[in-house]
C-alpha cells in the first residue's frame, strides 16, 4: 500500500490592535451595531482618499523582527482587484510586489521534544473586508462594513509543515509571539486571528508537490486539526481512485466535519495587481527600526529560562504561566507584592484557568488586579480566611471591582480560630455521629474527613480546618 506525505503551508491573517482602521479614523472595536464604524473611505465612496495609519507599520515591523524576517526598507501598497459584496471598493489594498517583511522563520517544538524551523515567506499589510450576514429564513444576505478597513497582517509560511500537530504548534508560537508584542489579541473565536490552510499530499519520497487546496472558515485549533485530517483523507481517496485533486478553495463546516468547494483557487495574475496610486511608498529608516527593536518585550522562551532560575517553579507551572503575556504580567506583579511564587502560580493555574474555561474567556480578558490576588494569599497565610472562603473571595474579585477585605467583612467569611468555640462544636459533632467515631476508632482513618466536614458545616464554613482536624484527633484518641 502506498504511503503519503502531507504538505501544508498557512496564510495567517491577524487583525492588528490599533484603535482606528488602516486608512481612516473609524473605530476598530469588535462588535457595534452594523455599519456604525464606517466612513466614506472604508465604504469605498468615490473620491475618498486613504491615509496610512503609522501604528500599522509599527506593529507589522515588530512582528517581522520577532519572527526573524528581513524588513523591506522601501515598500509600497498594491491594489488587488476582485468583486465581492463585502469588498466595497471592488479592490483590496494589499502588498504583492514589496511586502514589508520577507524571509523569516519561527522554531516550533515537536511532540518528541525536538525543534523544527518553519520558514516564513513574507508578511504583508492589508485591509480587511466587510462581513456578509446570511439570513436563511428570509433567504437574503446583508453586509456589515464595520470590519472593512480593519488593519491586517498576512503571514505567509512556506509549505514546511507535515502534520496537523505541527500546524497547531506553529500557530501557537505565532499567537504567543504576537500577543507578547501587544500587536493583536489573536482571538480565533472573534476572527482577529484566522488561518487558511493550503494542503496537498504526495507519495512519500516524491519531490514534486501535489495539487493543493485552500481551506477557510477555521476558527479554532481543534477545527484546524479536524479539517486537516479530513482533507488529507479526501485527497488520498481521490488519488487512490484515479481521480485528480482540483485546485480550489474549500469551506470547512466544523459541526458536520465536512468541507465543500467554494470556488476555483485563483493565482496572483487573476487579481490584476497594480501599485495603489493614492498611497505613497513607505521608507523605513534605521532610526525607526532601532525604535521598534528597543520596544521588543521579553518573549516566552527567554521568560521561561528566567522563571526557572529566579522563581524555581516546576516546568509545568512555567509553561502554563508564560503561555500568556497577561498571565505572566499578573504573576510577576503579584509575586512582587507577596513574594510567594508557588502560591501565586497555584492560583493562576488552578482557579484562574478554571474560571476562564467556565466563562469561555481568554487570559487577555482578565480584569482582577495583582494587589487583590496578593491580598487573598496574605489573608489565607494569616489564617484570617480558610481555603474555601479564599476561593469565594477570588470568584468575587475576578471581574476586578471588589476589594477582598470588604468582601470578607460584608459576607462574614473571617475564619474562626477561637479554640474554645471550635472545641464546643467538635464535641457536639462527635456526640451526634457515633458511627463515624466508631469507624475511626476501628481503624478507618478516612472517617475523620466526614467529621471535619460536619464541623465545617456547623461553623458555616468559617472554621480553621487545621484546628478542627487537630481537635478531632485529640478528642477521639483520648
UniProtKB/TrEMBL annotation:
Gene: gatB
Enzyme class: ligase
Species name: Lachnospira multipara
UniProt keyword terms in alphabetical order: ATP-binding, Ligase, Nucleotide-binding, Protein biosynthesis, Transferase
Subunit structure as annotated in this protein's UniProt entry: Heterotrimer of A, B and C subunits.
A GO biological-process term: glutaminyl-tRNAGln biosynthesis via transamidation
PANTHER family noted in UniProt: GLUTAMYL-TRNA GLN AMIDOTRANSFERASE SUBUNIT B MITOCHONDRIAL AND PROKARYOTIC PET112-RELATED, GLUTAMYL-TRNA(GLN) AMIDOTRANSFERASE SUBUNIT B, MITOCHONDRIAL
Name of the protein in question: Aspartyl/glutamyl-tRNA(Asn/Gln) amidotransferase subunit B
Function: Allows the formation of correctly charged Asn-tRNA(Asn) or Gln-tRNA(Gln) through the transamidation of misacylated Asp-tRNA(Asn) or Glu-tRNA(Gln) in organisms which lack either or both of asparaginyl-tRNA or glutaminyl-tRNA synthetases. The reaction takes place in the presence of glutamine and ATP through an activated phospho-Asp-tRNA(Asn) or phospho-Glu-tRNA(Gln).
Catalytic reaction list: L-aspartyl-tRNA(Asn) + L-glutamine + ATP + H2O = L-asparaginyl-tRNA(Asn) + L-glutamate + ADP + phosphate + 2 H(+); L-glutamyl-tRNA(Gln) + L-glutamine + ATP + H2O = L-glutaminyl-tRNA(Gln) + L-glutamate + ADP + phosphate + H(+)
High-level lineage: Bacteria, Bacillati, Bacillota, Clostridia, Lachnospirales
Record family assignment: Belongs to the GatB/GatE family. GatB subfamily.
Catalytic activity, EC: 6.3.5.-
Amino acid at each position: 500500500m502506498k504511503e503519503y506525505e502531507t504538505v501544508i503551508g498557512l496564510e495567517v491573517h491577524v487583525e492588528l490592535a490599533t484603535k482606528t482602521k488602516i486608512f481612516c479614523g473609524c473605530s476598530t472595536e469588535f462588535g457595534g451595531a452594523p455599519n456604525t464604524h464606517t466612513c466614506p473611505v472604508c465604504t469605498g465612496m468615490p473620491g475618498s482618499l486613504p491615509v496610512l495609519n503609522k501604528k500599522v507599520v509599527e506593529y507589522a515591523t515588530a512582528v517581522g523582527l520577532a519572527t526573524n524576517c528581513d524588513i523591506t526598507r522601501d515598500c509600497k501598497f498594491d491594489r488587488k482587484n476582485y468583486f465581492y459584496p463585502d469588498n466595497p471598493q471592488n479592490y483590496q489594498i494589499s502588498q504583492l510586489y514589496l511586502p514589508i517583511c520577507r524571509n523569516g522563520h519561527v522554531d516550533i517544538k515537536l511532540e518528541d521534544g525536538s525543534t523544527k524551523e518553519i520558514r516564513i515567506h513574507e508578511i504583508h499589510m492589508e485591509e480587511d473586508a466587510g462581513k456578509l450576514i446570511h439570513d436563511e429564513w428570509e433567504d437574503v444576505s446583508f453586509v456589515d462594513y464595520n470590519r472593512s478597513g480593519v488593519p491586517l497582517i498576512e503571514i505567509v509560511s512556506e509549505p514546511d509543515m507535515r502534520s496537523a500537530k505541527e500546524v497547531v504548534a506553529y500557530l501557537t508560537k505565532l499567537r504567543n509571539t504576537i500577543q507578547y508584542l501587544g500587536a493583536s489579541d489573536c482571538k480565533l473565536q472573534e476572527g482577529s486571528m484566522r488561518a487558511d490552510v493550503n494542503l496537498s499530499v504526495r507519495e512519500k519520497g516524491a519531490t514534486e508537490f501535489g495539487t493543493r487546496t485552500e481551506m477557510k472558515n477555521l476558527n479554532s485549533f481543534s477545527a484546524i486539526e479536524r479539517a486537516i485530517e479530513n482533507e488529507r483523507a479526501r485527497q488520498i481517496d481521490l488519488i487512490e481512485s484515479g481521480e485528480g485533486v482540483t485546485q480550489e478553495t474549500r469551506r470547512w463546516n466544523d459541526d458536520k466535519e465536512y468541507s465543500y468547494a467554494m470556488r476555483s483557487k485563483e493565482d496572483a495574475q487573476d487579481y490584476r495587481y497594480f501599485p495603489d496610486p493614492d498611497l505613497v511608498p513607505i521608507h523605513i529608516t534605521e532610526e525607526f527600526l532601532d525604535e521598534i527593536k528597543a520596544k521588543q518585550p521579553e518573549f516566552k522562551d527567554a521568560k521561561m529560562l528566567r522563571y526557572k532560575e529566579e522563581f524555581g517553579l516546576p516546568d509545568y507551572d512555567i509553561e502554563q504561566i508564560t503561555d500568556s503575556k497577561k498571565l505572566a504580567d499578573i504573576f510577576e506583579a503579584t509575586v512582587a507584592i507577596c513574594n510567594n511564587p508557588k502560591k501565586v502560580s497555584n492560583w493562576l493555574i488552578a482557579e484562574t484557568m478554571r474560571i476562564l474555561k467556565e466563562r469561555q474567556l481568554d487570559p487577555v480578558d482578565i480584569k482582577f488586579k495583582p494587589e487583590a490576588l496578593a491580598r487573598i494569599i496574605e489573608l489565607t497565610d494569616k489564617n484570617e480566611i480558610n481555603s474555601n472562603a479564599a476561593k469565594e473571595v477570588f470568584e468575587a474579585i475576578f471581574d476586578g471591582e471588589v476589594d477582598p477585605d470588604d468582601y470578607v467583612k460584608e459576607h462574614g467569611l473571617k475564619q474562626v480560630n477561637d479554640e474554645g468555640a471550635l472545641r464546643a462544636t467538635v464535641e457536639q459533632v462527635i456526640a451526634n455521629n457515633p458511627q463515624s467515631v466508631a469507624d475511626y476508632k476501628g481503624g478507618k482513618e478516612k472517617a475523620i474527613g466526614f467529621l471535619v466536614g460536619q464541623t465545617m458545616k456547623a461553623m458555616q464554613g468559617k472554621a480553621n480546618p487545621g484546628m478542627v482536624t487537630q481537635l478531632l484527633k485529640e478528642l477521639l484518641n483520648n
